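Entry type: protein chain
Record version: 2
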Amino acid sequence: MNIYVRSDNLAEISTATEAGLTDGILYAGSGNAEHDPTELSEIVAEFALPVCVAVGAMTTSDMYREARELSRLSDRIIVQVPLVEDAVPVIRKLTVDGVDVCANFIFNAAQAAIAARAGAGKVLVSVPDLDSQGQSVDEVLGDIRAVFDRTHAECDLMASGPRSAAEFTSCILAGADIICITPALLKSLILHPSTDRALDRFLNDAGKRGKPRSST
């Protein structure tokens, strides 16, 4: 299981990288026309990590053109393409070109299977989007995992946007290869109220024991 940090902030990404807690970056500025175009270039130059970036275009020709432009930034770029009908030939063509493609807007195992068949190396499932549709995150992720295992698909399952330690754990148990989380959630995974209470008891007990007596 790998962790991708969802961010466009150099300091946040640096903190996670220095702690050895991230295997890649889900670029949070994807599809935002107001973002500084140099920002992504800086992130790619600064970190020797895969960077997943979504295209903003929706027509076949524009998706392909934008994806190729992004892929030229680095061989570590993963181009994120929406799984819509017009995108299927784009995914195939990009894969033939040697571009690493992640298909998103995946809501069931059938879509994931089609994306993998078209050549996508990754499929991204949004946990909040599944929740908003009333779908079971565990069931959808589990179904995709089972289909990929049964068909020997060379495609990674990415789960994006868990909002708690419980959802993060559910994504792992459901078989996600990559989990995309915010820096805030990553920090919260280290913390637990019981840990704080145990530390308080430890410090209190240490204080009661006092300093050892000198032998002189």
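Comment: Residues 2-191 form a domain with the TIM Barrel fold (CATH 3.20.20.70).
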